[in-house]
Each structure stands twice: as structure tokens, then as C-alpha cells.
């Protein structure tokens, strides 16, 4: 086995630049942009490839909806900061200190020394549902997770919060009159007390797209898209708002203030604009998505604050990294991505200008590491890159029998399993690429990744 492996490496080295995973861990100094990395799809690239893409973009902050160990591992030894999530289905269990401790010990502690986990969102848009059990479990779950972190000495590194839909507001204009829905006061008042005490940010998912789509004749598109426009005046403060997102953010600040808190920071855990929608989803288009996200990036880069909080730079996670083909709901839901799953941008938001690496290509010249395990001696393997997501694998047997097989890199699988059987007359047939199949000869391509420098 040892002799074959070195021969194998020689073969690969002759065709590719070969890096190990640890060599590819480069330090990046990110811009202020954060991205939501949602994974409700069956065609996404593996986390190690996504890690390469994001690092090539200098993206320094990523938000997950779970605590996917594969993702956390793929970002080991990078400077990328993670918000990880506990889905709503966990809330009830997380009110139990034993279960909360188990979760933190299994999903956070093993990764935190290598991957920067800075925040846990406990639940997402809990008040969108009518499930009052969920509503009343929210704060106890947050408190229990927080106490667990305190007990484990992690509370200084990791904050605890939850992300809200903008629907928790009953009034959002003028921003200075923003207020929460009265029916939620019994939940939000103690929640705000928790934020103030635990010093954690209040997160809001804010989509000017929804407001525009629901009322295209009333809402000026330029105002929703950060395009030049005369803006809307808050008659109470005389502050002028040239875009809706800032007005929404300040409305949340006002609503919090109305409940007696002035020292809780509001951050945008999601915002974005779909590049495609159903016929009745007015405004969903690549042009508008490009304007919204492109203009937003400029504002983030300029470290702007909102009119009512000019000294606090907006803190934003854009939704989302990829189009997610399995998201339910209207077509827009599946078309918020900046990227298609194959790594090509959905539209050009000028990231290349200040984020070199967007031109970074997945094609052959940029393949950088590839580790292969064979479980039988006497065979040699050669790998060619065909295109962004396919590799050609040629398998040579000791008896010079050669086959050429193109393998699709399975997006959701870190490992690619290829089974071969040697048929009669020397022909070799590939099986289905399933991990658990009984397999006379199994080849596992463990990782394929990209180095960005
Ligand atoms: C990306 O990060 C690297 C490493 O810190 C830095 O040299 C480079 O200028 C950054 N690129 C941009 C566009 O900020
Ligand atoms: C909650 O805890 C129960 C009992 O331990 C377990 O069976 C269930 O899978 C847990 N729910 C989630 C979402 O983890
Ligand atoms: C939730 O409650 C609102 C108001 O009480 C009601 O209009 C809506 O139909 C309810 N939704 C569901 C799914 O029960
Ligand atoms: C190769 O792997 C297959 C499937 O895991 C197994 O059945 C077979 O015995 C292995 N061959 C060797 C030589 O280890
Ligand atoms: C296998 O495919 C690669 C890539 O397309 C090609 O370069 C090579 O010549 C093929 N080999 C055989 C034996 O067909």
C-alpha cells in the first residue's frame, strides 16, 4: 500500500499543484460584510469548497442556521467568525439545562478552539408562528443556553440571541414612532431585559423587498433599493431617510426604547433581494437584486450608521450566499442567492472591484488539493479536471486495464464514493456512487478544495 500511495501522489503531483488542507489555511482580514450560508438545497458545493469561495471574497463573517460540524471544520484556522443557530425545533429541549449543556458540549466546544464561533441564535423568527408554546419557550431556552456558556467559561466569546422577523413591529413609520406589537409585549419586555443583562445584540431580519412587493404603487423603488431619491422625512425628528432599511432599523431602535432600553444594539441578521420571483412578486429581478445588494455593500464598506444612530456602523448579514433550491414557498424564496450552487455569481455586484478573488475560477488551473484513498493495492489512479464540478478519474489496474470515468462532485457529500467492478472481457463498470454499497473496489475522494492565494 505504501509503495502505491507514493506512486499515486507522484501521478497527481505531475498534473496538479498539490496542497494539504493545513497549508491552505490562510489568514484573511475580512471586510465588514457578513453572509448567511443557508443549506436548504441538494446541489450545494461541499463546505470545504465554500470555505475557499468565501475566503477568496474576504468574507469574514458567516451565519448558519444550524451548527453543521462539516462547515465548522471546513473553516478551521480561518479568521471567519460564525453565528451558529439552534432551530425552533430545539427550543423546548434547550429549556432543560442538561440538554442545553449536552448540545453546547457536542456542537460548540469541540470546534471553538479552531473555528471562531461568536454567537448562537436560539430560534429564528419565533413570533411568526402562532405556536404560543414556542413563544414562551424562547426566553427560557436562551437563558439556559447562556447559563451553560457561563458554566463552561464560554460566555465572553459567545453571545446568545435570537433573530426576529420585522413583523414583530406594529408600527415602523415614522421610524421614531416604531413600536412592537402589543400582543408580544409580555415576551419582548423580559427578552430585552435579558439582552441588556447578557450584553447581546437584538437581531432583525429586514426585507424592504416585502414592503415594496406588497405595495409597489406606494413604495418608491429607489427608496427600497438605496438608489438616489429625495427620501422620506421623519416629521418628529426631522431626520431624512434615503432608504427603507435604515428606517426599519431605526424603527426597531425606537420600539426598544419605548420599552425602556437604550443600550441594546440592533443588528440585521438577514436582508437581501431576490433575483427571481413568481409573477405576482413585483420587483424580484436580477437588476433590482444587483442594485440592492451592490448599494448595500457600499454602505457597509463606508461603515455608515442610520440617521438616528449615525455613530453605530450598520452590522449586516446578507441573505444569502447561494440560491437554495429546496426552500418552500414562492419562487423568490429559492432565489436570494448571490451565487448559483456552481459558484458563478447570479449577478455582478462589483465584488471583483474590492474583493479580488471573485474572478477566482473553479476550473483546472485552480484546483489545489485533492486527497484520495484507495483500499486495494495494485491499482493506480489519475485525475483530470473537466470543469467546475466534474473530475475525470482514470483507473489503471496492474494489468493495464484502463477506464475513464467522469465523476460528479456530490455537493452535499464531502466524500465521493466510486465503486468499480471488473466485468468479463476486461471491461470495468462503475456502480452507483453510493457510500454503503457492497463494493469490490472502493475509491474515496476525501476532499477536493481550493486555495485562494
Ligand atoms: C483581503 O485580505 C487580504 C489579507 O488580509 C488583504 O491583503 C487584501 O487586501 C484583502 N482584500 C480586500 C479587497 O480587502
Ligand atoms: C429533544 O429531546 C428528546 C429526548 O431526549 C429527543 O428524543 C429529541 O430528539 C430532542 N429533540 C431535538 C430536536 O433534538
Ligand atoms: C395566526 O393568528 C392570526 C391572528 O390571531 C390569524 O389571523 C392567523 O390565521 C393565524 N395563523 C395560523 C397559521 O393559525
Ligand atoms: C475494499 O472495500 C470494500 C468495501 O468497503 C471491501 O468489501 C473490500 O474488502 C475492501 N478491499 C480491501 C482489499 O480492503
Ligand atoms: C480520460 O479523460 C481525460 C479527460 O477528459 C482525457 O484527457 C484522457 O485522454 C482520457 N483517457 C482515456 C483513456 O480515454
UniProtKB/TrEMBL annotation:
Does the record's keyword annotation contain Lyase?
A: no
**Transmembrane region(s):** none
What range does the record give for the signal peptide? 1-22
Q: Which Pfam families match?
A: Glyco_hydro_17
Top-level taxon of the source organism: Eukaryota
For whether the record's keyword set contains Flavoprotein, the answer is no
Q: What is its EC number?
A: 3.2.1.39
What Gene Ontology biological process does one annotation of this record name?
carbohydrate metabolic process
Q: Which reaction does it catalyse?
A: Hydrolysis of (1->3)-beta-D-glucosidic linkages in (1->3)-beta-D-glucans
The entry's keywords: Glycosidase, Hydrolase, Signal
Q: What molecular function does GO assign, one term?
A: glucan endo-1,3-beta-D-glucosidase activity
Family (UniProt): Belongs to the glycosyl hydrolase 17 family.
User: What is the protein's name according to its record?
Assistant: glucan endo-1,3-beta-D-glucosidase
Lineage of source species = Eukaryota, Viridiplantae, Streptophyta, Embryophyta, Tracheophyta
